[in-house]
Amino acid sequence: MSRIGRMPIKVPQNVTIEVGEANHVVVQAGDHRLERRLPDAMRIVQEDGELRVERPTESRQHRALHGLTRTLVANMVIGVTDGFTRRLEINGVGYRAQKVGDLVMFQLGYSHPVAFEAPPGVTINVEGNNRVVVTGADKELVGETAARIRRIRPPEPYKGKGIKYAEEQIRRKAGKAGGKGKK
Hints:
Blueprint: E1 9-10, E2 16-19, E3 24-29, E4 32-37, E5 43-47, E6 50-54, H1 60-81, E7 84-91, E8 96-100, E9 103-107, E10 114-117, E11 122-127, E12 131-136, H2 139-152, E13 162-165
Antiparallel strand pairs: 1-6, 2-3, 3-4, 5-6, 7-12, 7-13, 8-9, 9-10, 11-12
């Protein structure tokens, strides 16, 4: 039995969950609304303020989908109640970010500033001029947006300059050995 899949999902009072035909799940709380179509084989049972995901057989495919489906629904519930956050740091002399209207402008050592627009459902805030905070209800969209920002200038291994996740450790390389062998 899947350890993750068999755990019930507690549904807070202010969250409404609708399971439609073909496992189309809608999770809503306040002004946040998430929709997702889940695998047809899984059954989602709602009772006593809890959600459970049940699988039809013990096949390898159904065991794999069991934990995945439960995690996707749990992330939807967490997303509409608390939301998700990814923090990024910008390292490097002259590297900075600033919010201009709906855009975030990055100065990252290129010959031009790089403009980045947040997709709908995601907000990007700039703290100081070297910290970027990506927040939203959809965990997948928040992670993808943070990855797209990091991809603008990934951290390089020699000086650590670039955009990195706040919790990320950059593996540093040694530079040149110097003029070894020259006279």
